[in-house]
Amino acid sequence: MAINWFKYSAPSTFYGLAGKLIPFFAWPAVLLFAIGLYIGFFVAPTDAVQSEAYRIIFIHVPASILSMFIYLIMAGYAALGLIFNTRLSSMMAQALAPTGALFAFISLWTGALWGKPMWGAWWVWDARLTSELILLFLYLGFIALQASIEDPRRADKAAALLAIVGSVNVPIIYFSVKWWNTLHQGATIKMSGTSMHVAMQQAMFIVLVACWLYVIAVALARVRSIILERERNTQWVNELKEVQS
Amino acid sequence: MTPRQKRLGFIVAGVVLVAAAVGLVLYALKNNVSLYFTPTQVFDKEAPQGRNFRIGGLVEPGSVKRETDGLTVNFNITDNHKVMPVVYKGILPDLFKEGKGVVAQGKLDEANVFRADEVLAKHDENYMPPEAADALKKAEAAKANAMQPGSASAEYPVAK
User: Fold this and answer.
1) Is B79 found in the same domain as B13?
2) Cα nearest neighbour of B137 on chain A
3) Which of A136, A240, B23, B122 is the most buried (most CB within 10 A)?
């Protein structure tokens, strides 16, 4: 059976497909969040140095990883939209931005809450923290630029350029703790292995998968509203059940 | 070249150029981007003179001394090459410990003692339960004992 994949790059077909897919990501996300956080807070052992306070890692690290990954995916979609002039790619970039900003904010916020008791400071201007703050500003800039231009095609183009240029920041965040002296510690999860107890790793991995599923579900839901908004003058939108009622 | 390939080319070239520019800027600002100087850098006069800066390293084991007022603390920061004496008056973070990472902000005085007005603790990237940390310590002690026969420590008996 041959599937014509390009069919789904048309907003009118993707709208229905996205609606059908959302529950398959949303419910596993809820379940895995519950399992992951339960293991993280109740099953994983106390840390030798930081005792119970380290448990914020189960939110902080997945949020940080996602904030960087979502940016790259968003920039990728924006670039696709710019190169191939596909409307849906630009809409996906627009749909991912608020979620990315949310994760960048959670990463900074939980980091501050963790930094005060452990390091002794809410905030220091070290390379890791500063570059993550710039990431949050890039997300906010992308959202603002997109919203400030009336014509969606021009808005997509301008915002796409910002997203693509900003993607240079992501490797800087990741390698900042290696390249410079920072207060933030180095990477726990490395290519060569993980310097972390097994139950801790499992909890972090499960929450990370839950976050991914959440991101996909939310991006699909958001792209559906963006499609409706942008195609509101087309016939297929006006024939939809949910629009007519 | 189709317009599509042209646009792809422009984007790739643009990203490469921006990355190179940012890379050069960050390389030039290397010392400003780093949060702290190591004691070796301070001895090599790479740290700013007569101005506030941060120094980072490990708290030298056995160097922490509290003065009678209960608030002033003397300790040494080391990077295993040079040692910098530090004086700090204030409350230390919970994770401040001999042999562990620390970052202090302050100024050098005339006697080359670092007068800190803020001390932050730096922890490492390893997370393990206390039992595992104990086991690790014991293994290290056992190794040290094996290297120096006859000096068995009472604290960590070697495997019976």
Assistant:
1) no
2) A48
3) B122
B28 in the same domain as B41: no
Q: Which of A48, A179, A186 sits opposite B125 (nearest CB)?
A: A186
Of B18, B36, B92, the CB nearest to A168: B18
pTM: 0.88
Residue B147 lies in a domain: no
Q: Is A191 on the interface with B (CB under 8 A)?
A: no
User: B34, B53 in Cβ contact below 8 A?
Assistant: no
CB of A186 within 8 Å of any CB in chain B?
A: yes
The pLDDT tens digits of the residues spanning A195-240 come to 888 889 999 999 999 999 999 999 999 999 999 999 988 898 888 8
Residue of A nearest to B29 (CA): A180
Helix (H/G/I), strand (E/B), else coil: B40 = helix
Is any Cβ of chain A less than 8 angstroms from the Cβ of B104?
A: no
Same-domain check for residues B107 and B94: yes
CB-CB contact of A179 with B32 (8 Å): no
Rounded Cα–Cα distance for residues A194 and A187 (Å): 9
B8 CB within 8 Å of a chain A CB: yes
Please check whether residue B116 touches A, CB under 8 A. Answer: no
CB–CB contact A45 B129 (8 Å): yes
Distance from the Cα of residue A205 to its chain's centroid: 16
Residues A4-61: tens digit of each pLDDT:
767 778 888 899 999 999 999 999 999 999 999 999 999 998 888 888 889 999 999 9
What is the CA B5 to chain-centroid distance, rounded? Answer: 48
Report the alpha-carbon distance of residue A127 to residue A123 in Å, rounded. 12
Give the domain range for residue B109. Answer: 34-122
